[in-house]
Amino acid sequence: MQGTGKRKQPIPPVYAILAIILLIAVAILYARRERYGLSEGDPMPRFILEDHQARRFDSSALWGKVVVIAFWKVSAEASAAEIKGLDDLRKTYGDRGFEAVGISLDEEEKYVKAFVARHQVRIPLLIGSRETAHLFGGIKGVPTIYIFDREGRVKEVLEGFRGKQAIEEKILELL
């Protein structure tokens, strides 16, 4: 006499293959997801950009210094405030081996020129691009601040407005 229970049907090979393909696709997408920004310990990327007066700036001039690089836009008030704060910090700590650089993501350099004329900022304000942001692993928003130690390694990444005092505390630890 046969049992009344139903027999388990084996999974057809087609479904097993589809499941494996789906798992592989998810693994590939996960591995290729875009990572934003450099992480602590990453080296500073090498770049050559022009400032608002078309003067060439080579990042190799920053080696051996504590460096803050700020991605910003003139149109974002918080970004402009961070740049003015960095300019003050450079005046205070420049003789101790501190340098600050702003990389503008504005589409036209005329905005940066007007900002410099209005605020008399002395730190290098460079004209960046998507390619520049890509060197840093992508920028989600402005301001984005990278703090590098004297060996050119990322020590801190600050996204959004933090203010002069918060940045000063971080750089004082490195000077």
Topology:
Layout: H1 13-32, E1 48-50, E2 56-58, E3 66-72, H2 77-93, E4 98-104, H3 109-119, E5 125-127, H4 130-135, E6 144-148, E7 154-159, H5 164-174
Parallel strand pairs: 3-4, 4-5
Antiparallel strand pairs: 1-2, 3-6, 6-7
CATH fold label: Glutaredoxin
Cα distance, first to last residue?
88 Å
Number of helices: 5
Overall form: elongated
Would you tell me the structural class of the helices and strands?
Answer: alpha/beta
Total individual domains: 1
Average pLDDT confidence is 87
The CATH architecture can be named as 3-Layer(aba) Sandwich
Largest sheet: 5 strands, mixed
In CATH terms, the superfamily is: Glutaredoxin
Q: Helices and strands, in N-to-C order?
A: HEEEHEHEHEEH
Helix content: 25-40%
- What does the radius of gyration come to? 24 Å
Regions with little confidence, pLDDT below 50 for 5+ residues: none
Which percent range describes the beta-strand content? 15-25%
Walk across the major sheet and give the strand order. 5-4-3-6-7
| CATH class category label | Alpha Beta
How many DSSP E strands?
7
Would you write up a description of this structure?
- It is a single chain.
- The chain is an alpha/beta fold and 175 residues long.
- It has a single domain (48-174), classed as Glutaredoxin (3-Layer(aba) Sandwich), CATH 3.40.30.10.
- The chain contains 5 helices and 7 strands, in the order αβββαβαβαββα.
- The chain has helices at 13-32, 77-93, 109-119, 130-135, 164-174; strands at 48-50, 56-58, 66-72, 98-104, 125-127, 144-148, 154-159.
- The chain has a 5-stranded mixed beta sheet. The chain has a two-stranded antiparallel ribbon with strand order 1-2.
- β1 and β2 (56-58) form a beta hairpin.
- The longest helix has 20 residues, at 13-32.
- The radius of gyration is 24 Å and the shape is elongated.
- The N and C termini lie far apart (88 Å).
- The model has no long low-confidence stretch (mean pLDDT 87).
